[in-house]
Amino acid sequence: MHSTSSPFPSVQRRKLLGAAAGVTAAGFLTACSGGTKVGAGQNGSDDTPAFSGGEYKGPKVTLEYWNGFTGGDGPHMKAMLAAFNKQYEGRITVKNTTRRWEDLYPAMPTAISAGKGPDVAVIHNDQIATFAVRGTLMPLDDVVSALGLSESDFIPAVWQAGVYEGKRYSVPLDVHCLADYWNVRHLARAGLEKAPSDRAGYEDALKELKSAGVAQPFWMPNKWQAHLMFMSLLWQFGGDLYNEDGTEALWGSDAGEEALGWMTEQIRKGYSPAQVAQDSQYNAFKNDKTSFTWDGIWQINDLKSAAGKIKWDMAALPTIGSSPAVWTASHNFVLTSQTGRDKNKAQAAKFFIDYMSERSTEWAQAGMIPARNSVRAKAEIARLPQIPLAENVDIFRFLPALPGLGDVQRAALELAVQKAVLGQQSPAKALAEGVETAKKMLAENKQKYAK
Prior knowledge:
Number of helices: 18
Distance between the termini: 38 Å
Strand content: 5-15%
Helix content: 25-40%
C-alpha cells in the first residue's frame, strides 16, 4: 500500500530522503558500465539556453514523464497532468509512465542511456546523489533562479537535498513522513480521546486497549515501514545513521538497540502478532482490527475511502525516546541527460517543472505536505489533516546524500531490523552484523562512485 520513501549527523548534512527501500544502486552501476557516466559528454547542460521563465515558445514536443505514484496520490498527479496537457495542447504533450519506485529506479539509467527513458521525472531526495554523480541528471540552477525560489521559503533540509557538489539537480515538490494513525472508537473504549504523545502514555494506552478487548492493538511489521519506524526511533533516542563522510554506519549504537528493542518489546508484550506479512499491519488497521499504526501520510486518501469501516485520526509520532523525530522524505522534479540532447525538449521540460511547482497547492490534496512555507500557510492548505505535522519542521529527519545508499539500507539496515522483529536474532546481534555489512558496502561505494 505504499506509494512512497532520514537524517544526518547535522542539519547541514540533511540532504536526501529515504523512500522505496528496495532501490538498487547495483542495477544503476550495471547500466552505467561500472564507472561510466550515463550522461557524460551528452547532457547538453553547457549549451542548452538558460531557462528564463514564462511560456514555452518552441516547436511542438512530447515529453516522457516517469514517476512512482502508484497509490492514493496517483489520481491527483494524473489530474494535474491532464490539466497541463489540455492547456498546452498543440505545444507540449506530456506522456505519463507510472511504475513502482523499486522498479523505476533501476530501470531509469538503462532507458536514459538508450534514449528511451524519461525527459523529466520525480525521484526521492535520497536518489539525487546517486543519479547526479553518474551524470544522469541536468542541473536546474537556471530554473530555480527564474522561479525566484530560495531556501527561505522551504524547509531547509528539503531545499538542501537538491544540491550535490555545488549544483542544484532538483526542485522539491513536497515532504512526506510517518504519522501515528489511531482508531477513534478503539481509543474511546480505553477512555482516550486521542493518542498519547509520550512513551509512558502510549504504553499505558496499549495496556488499556488490550484490557478493553483489543487483542493486538499495535501490529509490528518486519518489512515495509519497519525500517522507517526504526530510523525514527533511532533519532528519537539520540542516534545517527552514518558518520559525516559516509564511511561508517552508526545505527548499531546504544540508541539503535533501544529503538529496535522497543519495537520487539511490543511483540513480547502481546500487542502484535509475531510475524506480520507485508502491509498486513496497515490492512488490519484499515479494517478496524488494530488501534494504532505508524504509516506514511500518503495513506490519508486511502483511509478516507474506508470511512465506512473505520473512524480514524492522526498525529505526529509519539516521542518514545528523549526528543521528537520522524523519518521524512521528499518528492523532487528532475531533468535527465536524455532531455539535454534536445534543446527544445529541455526548455519545455523546465517549463513543465515551473508549471507543476506552482501547483503544489493542488498536490497537497494527495495527502502530501507542500515543501514551500508560503503554500503551507494558505488557508485552504492549513486545514488539511497532514499540515499540523509540519508545525515543528525540526523533527523531520532525512537520509544523507550518499551515492549508492539505497543498497546499503536494503541489504544491511533493513535486514537487521527484519531479523530482530522476526525473533531470529537479538536486536544487538542483528544490528552488529548489519553494521559490518554496511561498512563493507560503504567502502565499495566509495570506489564505485569515485569521480
